[in-house]
TrEMBL record:
This is Rod shape-determining protein. It is found in: Cytoplasm. Belongs to the FtsA/MreB family. Keywords: ATP-binding, Cell shape, Cytoplasm, Nucleotide-binding. Pfam families: MreB_Mbl.
Amino acid sequence: MGAIGIDLGTGTTVVCHPREGVVHDAPSLLVEWPSRRGRELLIGDAAAALDGRTPPGARVGHPVRDGAVTDLGLVRLYLRELLRATAHGRWHVRRPHAVLSCSVDATPLERRALRESAEEAGCGRADLLPAPLAAALGCGLDLGDPRVQAVVDVGAGTAEIAVFCHGVVLARRSCRHAGDEMTAALRAHLREQHGVLLSTSVVDALKTAASSAREPLAAEGRDAATGRPRVVPVEVAEIEAVLAPTVRRAGAALGDCLDDLPVAGVPDLLAGGVVLVGGASLAPRWREELETALGLPVKVPERPRTCVAEGLALAGGRPELRSLPA
């Protein structure tokens, strides 16, 4: 059997099996729930359903913050439960081989800590691959191509770009102008301008729906003055205007990587364009703002949310791709 791909992100974790495809796509969240039997652990959708509704004594944990692992103990616990929840005996492997995503800016110490945490959680062996390279592989790009290629990965905590050639990263940039910043900006705007308090999940849903909606969207929350339930209609153009500054800041920060790009690689990017992936890239204006900032055509693949995990699973069968230096 090949390796399972685990894209452990700030907002979402996606697990892909090399033969069965995506078997897990849920929030990166763990809830330790007090019960009569002791401590009950919930992850993913089950944990998200209880977020904000937890009683005293419950613990809500995010294994990744702003694109980085901050609590290795929590990561080990989360990955252990993730392996249990996704296996269900289907792989018949007690300690599966896994390939995990990492940031293009991850230090050797951060890489080692993540690898060891995965192995201690139950992986027989854990390899790492920078998320943009995994996304390229999942989108069908050839990492061994001598032409220069580029991928932008926009997650909840970070947005990053990698420009690579023949499997080697030539230029890279990372910034924190990403999904969480857009969510915070939209939540603050709706509170100040419409007087409504919204949960993170509702704001995230509005943010994503605005990319394809044509009619006003309904924001369901609590009136900031009275505390009563309230539904507010919000125009799509208004949401786009609130999100646009974050997207422009990200585009400017990521565009700086072109300063490090060899001049000979520019024609390749003009011909092939830049691939845009990541769950937060589904929010409005990303494609347009990146094309303006980079001066290059930007393409969105068919499955931008899951292509990183799909690429990680493919990399498991290709030893030369595992743990490529960023």
